[in-house]
Design a protein that fits this description.
By secondary structure, the chain is of the alpha+beta class. Helices cover 24% and strands 37% of the residues. It has a 4-stranded antiparallel sheet with strand order 4-3-6-7, with no helix packed on it.
């Protein structure tokens, strides 16, 4: 009787372990749509640039409190003036044509 109970317990535990492995594999997502976007130079003194990318539509600059302080329409090869902003840290957000956030990067203004 003990052997039968131990055998049942063993099968139940094995079932739990294998079901968790297969479930976690189903939840694993592989991102293949990774977009390489760079905001440069960092630190920035007066103008910032974004590497050429056809996905970017808009550039928003936020202070660390979360208030939008600048907004630009993206044009390939253009430099964006932020020299009138006070020195400090800012978050630069790149938005696509569907108003989805592509990336948010921290930039130091000096």
């Amino acid at each position: 009787m003990k052997q039968l109970l131990l055998l049942c317990l063993f099968f139940c535990l094995c079932n739990v372990v294998f079901s968790q492995n297969s479930f976690s594999e189903k939840l694993t997502l592989k991102r293949t749509d990774r977009v390489e976007l760079q905001i440069y130079p960092n630190p920035v003194s007066s103008h910032l640039s974004v590497n050429d990318n056809e996905l970017v539509n808009e550039i928003n600059v936020f202070n660390l409190v979360g208030r939008k302080v600048k907004s630009f329409d993206f044009v390939n090869g253009e430099k964006y003036y932020i020299g009138d902003l006070p020195k400090g840290m800012y978050l630069v957000q790149l938005i696509d044509k569907r108003n989805k956030i592509l990336t948010t990067q921290r930039v130091s203004k000096r």
